[in-house]
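User: Can you write out an input/output pair for a complex, sequences first and structure second?

Assistant: Here is one pair. Inputs:
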Amino acid sequence: MTNALGLAKPRAPRRPAARRSNFELYSWLFMRISGMALVVLVLGHLFIMNILDGGVHRINFGFVAGRWASPFWQMWDLAMLWLAQIHGGNGLRTVINDYARKDATRFWLKILLYVSMVLIISLGTFVIFTFDPNITD
Ligand code: HEM
């Protein structure tokens, strides 16, 4: 078989479609977009918690209870938790892929990473939504 120029078609088989994916492209894009969101979320969080009227000295149970009574701050903290975990986790995935020398080391480090991500995201999300300010009863 030849093409319009009279050249033979390449004999090397094409990679099967099922193995082609844009995962790394989306992961690269996600790091940039989540990074921009984290600048606002994390710097805002640091400013409110550490600098604004009284900084850390005013943080206690009542302060946290007051904040989480508002869906806005619940969503802020939820977005920060999810984005920092997925951004940080995806970043560490890259570091592990780059530095682990043996397949088994790479595999188990990534399992450890993914398990820790799921645990921290689940526990944090659970706390944000089930937090009860009435600890007396
Ligand atoms: C201020 C907000 C942040 C911005 C603008 C930001 C931006 C970025 C970008 C663009 C990358 C990709 C670098 C590359 O592909 O070469 C990256 C990687 C990474 N980020 Fe962030 N990030 C931020 C916050 C965070 C936070 C809060 C964490 C931890 C929870 C984190 C952990 C990581 C890790 C572990 C990597 C991988 C580093 C590497 O590939 O060597 N980042 N960050």
